[in-house]
């Protein structure tokens, strides 16, 4: 059966629960999610399109390739990216980190039953390497929903090591699947990172023993400076196999300050970055890492 064209759907809040001091779960459903697809990728993510005010209708864009477009004259709705924590027929769960000053986080705090939200199709990211017998996961709270799905989806017998920083010890959470196996070990770094404390998880990962012989894969997601540090260690210190490495920056701490530093860059750096961003977009998956090396080297040199 041909799949229906990708579109942004109108979802409604079905439940809204506090999971822990730092995490809230919003269940989305409604007629438009009845045949909502899943990619099956454990860290699949969606674009969420928010209304201007709680309970108001969000303006929904048209899908164009992997992006989207609003009709001429329509003001774009604010968009944020979130992991699909769970997919059930007609419903998905999204786990929102609770933090101050965030449009999405604040929407989730106040979202009442029936409140509408735009939801894109899910996008796949990570394909676990079949040949790896151990997976190391490095995360902060934003990446816990994906961590939980990766653990749930791992083939029996896979050894999983988690290094995760949380602001509050009560935010440390593993899925029920992890309780029945000693194949999952977790190192929780409390009162660390997450926009509230200095981030310490990368220091711990830098001291951990990692197998570079292809038997181990490493998945890293969370705040951008933390993920960049771990990536640099994997790629440049350890020469970790690229096909066993998956690193994604999910958010930027104190983004306004980062943006101000970016906006203050001179014309030469801006032009160089534009060229590199273009090269990244055009590169093959394998070629992208080398372009990222150049982008991050430039970021490091100008304090970004
Ligand atoms: C593929 C992918 C999957 C993601 N999955 C999830 C997920 O499942 N759950 C989740 O909570 N997040 C997830 N994120 C991260 C989320 O998109 C960002 O945290 C986003 O910026 C939150 O939007 P906001 O409107 O709340 O804050 P924004 O309006 O974007 O930011 C406002 C301010 O809050 C700060 N800020 C942003 N996020 C945080 C945070 N988590 N903690 C503390 N300060 C913050 C910013 O630095 C900025 O100063 C994911 C990101 C990606 C790319």
TrEMBL record:
One of its GO terms (molecular function) is oxidoreductase activity. Gene3D superfamilies: Nucleotide-binding domain of ferredoxin-NADP reductase (FNR) module (3.40.50.80), Translation factors (2.40.30.10). Pfam families: FAD_binding_9 (PF08021), SIP (PF04954). InterPro entries: FAD-bd_FR_type (IPR017927), FNR_nucleotide-bd (IPR039261), Riboflavin_synthase-like_b-brl (IPR017938), SIP_FAD-bd (IPR013113), SIP_fam (IPR039374), SIP_rossman_dom (IPR007037). It comes from the Bacteria. Residues 6-129 form the FAD-binding FR-type domain. SUPFAM superfamilies: Riboflavin synthase domain-like. PANTHER family: FERRIC REDUCTASE, NADPH-DEPENDENT (PTHR30157), NADPH-DEPENDENT FERRIC-CHELATE REDUCTASE (PTHR30157:SF0). This is NADPH-dependent ferric siderophore reductase. It comes from Leucobacter aridicollis.
